[in-house]
Every structure is written in structure tokens, then in C-alpha cells.
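Late entry, evening session. Most of the bench is empty. Finally got around to the prediction I had been postponing all week. Sequence below, unchanged from the version circulated by S.P.
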Amino acid sequence: MFRFHLMPTAYVLIGMAIGGLAGACAAGANQPNMVAALNSLRAARAELIQATPNKGGHRERAINFVNAAISETEAGIAYAGN
């Protein structure tokens, strides 16, 4: 039987794609700039995760900042939707 193995980054990218679609559907057309920003942040996070971790801790901090920005953007979309 053929077994399909994905690299950890593939799981992140798949999750981002699913999350992006869910976020776009939930936000609707009334939040196009916020949805675009959210998708860009998720793409930036994927690139940071793929980067080699030899940056003196700066890569990890950048990932944390991007995660915080994603959370704030999602919260802004949800707030505007209420």
C-alpha cells in the first residue's frame, strides 16, 4: 500500500489554505482588505517557518509577532462582523 507523507511545512500550508478559505467565507465581501491582509500574514508566517532557524532568535520573534498580527486581524474581522 502506498503511504503518502507530508513534510511539516506542507501541513502548515494546507492549514493556511483551509483557514484562508474559511476566513474569506466568514468575512464575506465586506472585509476585502482585512481578508487580504490576513492571507498575506499567513503566507509570511509560512515563509518564516520554512526559513532556517539560525537568526539569533529573530526568526522566532518574527513568527510570534506575525501570529499576534494574525490574531488581531481575525479579531478585527470578527468585531466588524458583529
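Two things to note before I forget:
The CA atoms of residues 24 and 65 lie 22 Å apart.
The chain has three helices and no strands.
Will write this up properly tomorrow.
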